[in-house]
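Sample intake — Heavy metal binding domain-containing protein
Collected from: Adhaeribacter soli
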Amino acid sequence: MKIKNIAAALFLAASLAGFTGCGQQTAKEETTETTEKAKITDKAYICPMYCENSASDQPGKCPVCEMDLEKNPDYVAPASASADTTGAVADTAAAN
């Protein structure tokens, strides 16, 4: 009888530890995924599976899972020198 109680207690403890461990692992995975998503703002196209080193500035296929790359909704285009479309150059000598 005592062996059954001890076995039941061990089973219960192992079950509770398993549920707690899964919850912590899921939270860690979500944090990692969020961090990975946050890193990809400098590429126009990303893998829908967020494969490592798969983001690109050109459309194509993911080199890891071979899925089609999708437009990155978080893409931030870099500020470039071509932002001045007039082609005019300021004359700083005339201002003095």
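Post-analysis note: The longest strand covers residues 45-46.
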